[in-house]
Design goal:
Length: about 350
């Protein structure tokens, strides 16, 4: 009991420390530009939380999270573009590329802010539920599941590019100026967006931790380790995996939605195969089985991409792929596993009995 109490105290102390860093230290220490970059990195970390749940705990290598990130991002961007255009007006890119005189029928529901907010999370979850039912019921897993995820990401990106008149095509939805009545040109409002993103990240971590430590979390690990035994015990592994997949999709959708006001753009280039792999790389490097490791790894890899891609634009992608391979081959548990090894070695050293000199023993 004392052990559990001590562990919970450490967890909540760490959570409080993270809140102080995000809400206190970062806004004071970073410029507006750097704080905006951090907001972008935190959106990537939100996706990593879902990857930790689905892949780290459930063994589902989700290489298509860009799909759900994009669905949430486009849902948010569509509403914001409509709001920027004003009542009765079309978004600027429709006036430039299209011939329509009114909004397409599937754009009209996004005029309602409540519908748009709900769609950023529920739409990715609904798509994931449909795909998951088809995939998991047919017992597709392993590399085949990863390939299907990537194919879905590629298909969505290609479809968006081909719908230039209604989705902005290759450019996507750009030049987003407002966020529910607040101008994004104002640094104060940009900081507000950062605080919203930081709060959402902490909330997702709490949700994921509760799921991981619940009975469902134990069942998810059991399905990962021995699916047939779980089926023999009377549980349906497809339903267990489906829940993790759907929750991870909702987290990615929320991340995409908040990414839009943080960056001011959403495009097919941000949701295809390469971005989907980047989401997984961050979690793998930090430690896919550790929430803290996945979050820190995602932030670190996103920062490295920004810093190193400026110096080595052509070589960064190869370096990123090599980083993923090295992490999986030589450090499957990510950097978080190093901390676990250090704690275990320290505990072993402390428990080792102290040798008693012969003279004293006599």
């Amino acid at each position: 009991m004392n052990l559990l109490t001590g562990r919970s105290a450490r967890v909540w102390a760490g959570f409080a420390g993270a809140a102080v860093l995000l809400f206190g230290v970062a806004p004071l220490a970073l410029s507006d530009f750097r704080l905006g970059l951090l907001a972008k990195y935190l959106c990537t970390a939100m996706v990593a939380v879902g990857v930790c749940l689905a892949w780290g705990r459930g063994g589902l290598l989700t290489l298509g999270q860009g799909v759900f990130f994009g669905l949430g991002g486009y849902a948010m961007a569509m509403h914001l573009k409509i709001a920027d255009a004003g009542p009765g007006n079309l978004p600027d890119f429709m006036q430039l590329y299209g011939t329509a005189t009114e909004l397409p029928w599937w754009w009209k529901p996004f005029e309602n802010p409540l519908f748009a907010l709900a769609a950023t999370v529920l739409l990715p979850m609904a798509v994931a539920a449909l795909l998951g039912l088809f995939i998991f019921r047919r017992r597709v897993k392993g590399a085949y599941f990863a390939i299907l995820s990537q194919a879905l990401a590629a298909a969505l990106a290609i479809w968006l590019i081909g719908q230039q008149a209604t989705t902005g095509g290759t450019n996507g939805l750009t030049d987003i100026q407002g966020f529910f009545g607040y101008s994004l040109d104002d640094p104060v409002n940009q900081r507000m967006v950062y605080f919203v993103i930081a709060a959402a990240l902490l909330l997702l971590i709490v949700i994921a931790r509760q799921l991981i430590n619940s009975r469902y979390g134990e069942l998810l690990v059991a399905v990962r380790d021995s699916e047939e035994r779980v089926r023999f015990l009377g549980y349906d592994p497809a339903n267990v995996k489906l829940v993790a997949y759907v929750v991870a999709a909702g987290m990615a959708g929320l991340a995409g939605a908040l990414f839009v006001p943080a960056v001011g753009i959403i495009s097919p280039a941000l949701i295809g195969i390469v971005p989907s792999i980047e989401f997984v790389i961050g979690a793998a490097v930090g430690g896919r089985a550790s929430l803290v490791g996945a979050v820190l790894g995602a932030v670190a890899v996103a920062w490295a991409k920004t810093a190193l891609s400026e110096e080595f634009p052509a070589a960064w992608t190869y370096f990123q792929g090599l980083l993923f391979i090295v992490a999986l081959a030589f450090l499957p548990g990510g950097l978080a596993s190093l901390a676990v090894l250090v704690r275990r070695r320290r505990a072993t050293t402390e428990k080792k009995p102290t040798a008693i000199p012969v003279g004293e023993a006599a």
